[in-house]
Design goal:
With about 230 residues, the protein is mostly beta strands. It is built from no helices and 19 strands. It is about 0% helix and about 35% strand. Strand 1 and strand 2 form a beta hairpin. The protein starts with 15 loop residues before the first strand and ends in a 5-residue tail after the last strand.
């Protein structure tokens, strides 16, 4: 059943919600909300304001790092190539360099070594195929190998073997092409295509290691679901 649990201070869409290591939930960004960020406390069922973002943004990403901080990247607004770090112990945001490319509706995936892989997104002119790595230890950005296809509104899912599966998205059209990123070689390879073109879908790793892809959009909303699994050699 559902129960009411208060209201955010401002109305939001295209925002992010990130579970912190202390169990609270950090809500950041969104359309028409300025730089306001909020914390939800599940133990009390209450909302509280926390430090403001430096830039307005929506269509961004928010990733919990292994050090407990939250990395926010890109998005619509003045923020397209900027990145910020939220420090839960201080409740404050700090700039952490800028990506090499402007990005909206991109992805950010925390790798097993703690680095963050940022892929694709819309770069003002077209869906981009470049990818970058963020190193939390040095707070620096470096380009890595580019994807074979530019895409935005896609998904990038960390697999149990440490590789990253990128699915779907919008290039010049919606795509069913998928790619695998290998962090050990920093290279991309094309893998089996999905059965359906889709963007703004979900891709969830199951306990058995398979990836469940659901819904999305391709001229209309989809009700199709499919499973991805790595072939045994």
């Amino acid at each position: 059943m559902w129960t009411y649990t208060g209201e955010l201070a401002v109305r939001r869409s295209f925002h992010t919600a990130t579970i912190l290591k202390n169990g609270k939930v950090l809500v950041s960004g969104g359309s028409f909300v300025g730089t306001v960020t909020e914390l939800y406390d599940p133990s009390e069922g209450t909302w509280a304001s926390t430090g403001r973002l430096h830039y307005e943004r929506n269509g961004h990403t928010a990733s919990l790092l292994k050090n407990g901080k939250v990395l926010v990247t890109g998005g619509i607004g003045d923020a397209q190539n900027s990145a910020e770090l939220y420090n839960p112990s201080k409740g404050l945001w700090a700039d952490t360099g800028s990506m090499h490319q402007k990005r909206i509706y991109h992805t950010a995936t925390v790798l097993k070594d703690g680095k963050v892989l940022v892929t694709g997104g819309f770069n003002d002119s077209f869906p981009d195929r470049t990818a970058e790595l963020y190193a939390p230890s040095t707070e620096t950005w470096t380009f890595t190998d580019s994807m074979h296809y530019g895409r935005s509104s896609h998904q990038a899912t960390l697999l149990t073997n440490g590789k990253v599966l990128v699915t779907g998205g919008f290039g010049s059209v919606d795509t069913k092409i998928t790619e695998l990123y290998d962090p050990s070689t920093e290279t991309w390879t094309i893998t089996d295509s999905m059965h359906y073109e889709r963007r703004r879908h979900t891709a969830t790793v199951l306990k058995n290691g398979k990836v469940l892809v659901t819904g999305g959009y391709n001229e209309q909303a989809l009700n199709k679901a499919e499973l991805f699994y790595l072939k045994k050699k």
